[in-house]
Amino acid sequence: MQDRGYLFSNVSWFDVEAHQLQEMQKEIQGLDGNRLLNTSVDDLVSYLEHKFGVNVPELITSEIVVDQQETQIDVSRDHNRYIRDRSRPFHVSGTEVQVEIPFTGDAEAFKVQPTAYTSSPPRAEVRGSTLLLRIVGTDLNAEKVREQIDRTIQEIQSHLATLRTNAAGLKAQLPTKARATIESRRQKLLADRNLVGSLGFKMKERPSNASTYLAQEVRRKLAPTLHAASSTPYKPEPVLSVDDYEHILSILQNMVAVMERSPSAFAGMDEESIRSHFLVQLNGHYEGQATGETFNYQGKTDILVRSEGRNIFIAECKFWSGPKLLTDTIDQLLSYTSWRDTKTAVIVFNRNKDFSKVLAAIPITTKAHANFKRELPGSAETVFRYCFAHRDDKNRELLLTVLAFDVPQARPSGVAS
Predict the structure, then answer these.
(1) Contact of 167 with 56, CB cutoff 8 Å
(2) Which of 31, 60, 227, 409: disulfide with 36, CB 3.0–4.6 Å?
(3) How far apart are CA 245 and CA 220, in angstroms?
(4) CA dist., res. 281 & res. 51, Å (int)
């Protein structure tokens, strides 16, 4: 294609789009297998979308600067009857106005011909993050120069607008195609490691022990799932499935419902005593698996569910005393969460405080945490679901649920309701 200072004339958008998608797939296929398996799929998709998307420039027209200088202009091709030999250059004195337009974005995009363009594209020189327009003539005046500047900028903006539409189309394709390619390769890698079958992980439960507070229900078994391994060669570990995680949370929620219906029975209890009641309920469903104050990584946790020597659920119970306590509790939870722990919870009890303000403060405080990654589906008025990064490995993701409960104080005897 033509160049000679023309913008948007080196390569077509269709070629750029095909190239970016192809290069993205090549990068996925070229990633080290352990690196691919150890990296969060969402994080990898986000990285690829950013890397292979096209960042179309934005002109900063408010910061345009101009300059002028004398120059020699070749007029040999002009229709001047006094020039007899047009085969040789004939220079006269003239003026060159230089217009510098700063921009943000990818300078390479100025080489791309969008899907809609003019036969005579605008001319300018790309210098770093600045466009340089040159206007040359022997009889320039301010009005004509300004008209040419405005016209050229308008043409550039028109081409950039079309490129943004093209780039938006590419951006919409990248996550879907990236995720499909990643998942396909992950499945192949896992199959190569003979991990298609069951890992044989389950949680032994009591077959016939009714819970103290809950209605009788079918006893559950914990199904194995796979999660990302350490930063060294990939070694999958069984973890708590989402369904079983939800079931354990439902046990805790049902226990709080009992507390809310019978406040006098729990009015004088501290955190440790309340936690013990939760442990009774968990052990009613999962034989010998729920313990209290069990050492885990670098600290002691309130509620810990273990199976086959592995921690599969960790929770902290706290009475609400302000946003700082929640931040400290999350820090505490992360500090003793080992690399393989992926299901966690913070159980917040509220007493004698405005519960609406507590509920408003929880998402604000949690999202402000340094390890917060994103909010997840499943949140409700008093349940908040988040994805957190592990403190030692940003590719490792933890599921954190904050459960908030309003536990009323029992009224003193003799006080009318």
Answers:
(1) yes
(2) 31
(3) 11
(4) 49
At 308, the amino acid letter reads: E
The phi-psi region of residue 5 (left if phi > 0; otherwise alpha if psi is between -120 and 50; otherwise beta) is left
Cα(first)–Cα(last) distance of the chain, in Å? Answer: 86
DSSP secondary structure of 30-76: HS-HHHHHHS-HHHHHHHHHHHHS----EE-GGG-EEEEEEEEEE-T
Question: Could you report the per-residue pLDDT of 144-181, keeping only the tens digit for each?
Answer: 899 999 999 999 999 999 999 999 999 999 999 999 99
Average pLDDT, the chain: 78
Count of residues for the chain? 417
What's the rounded Cα separation, in Å, for the pair 60 and 388?
37
In whole angstroms, give the CA distance from residue 369 to residue 327: 7
Q: Tell how strand 310-319 and strand 294-296 pair up.
A: unpaired
Q: Which residues contact 243 (CB under 8 A, 6 or more apart)?
A: 223
Question: What confidence score (pLDDT) does residue 161 get?
Answer: 95
| Closest to 379 in 3D by CA, of 402, 398, 356 | 402
CA 262 vs. chain centroid, Å, equals 43
CA 367, distance to chain mean position in Å, is 13
Please state, in angstroms and rounded to a whole number, the distance separating the CA atoms of residues 222 and 204. Answer: 8
Amino acid occupying residue 242:
V
pLDDT tens profile 352-388: 678 899 999 999 999 999 999 989 887 788 899 999 9
Pick the closest to residue 362 from 343, 385, 336, 334 (CA basis).
385
Place of tokens 């988040």: 386
Phi, psi of 142 (to 5 degrees): -60, -40
DSSP string for 264-320 = HHHTT--HHHHHHHHHHHHHHHSTTTEESSEEETTEEESEEEEETTEEEEEEEEEE-
Name the 3-class secondary structure at 111. Answer: helix
Q: Quote the tokens at residue 412.
A: 């003193």
Placement of tokens 């600290």 in the chain: 299
Taking alpha carbons only, the member of 317, 325, 335 closest to residue 362 is 325
- Backbone φ and ψ of 316, nearest 5°: -120, 140
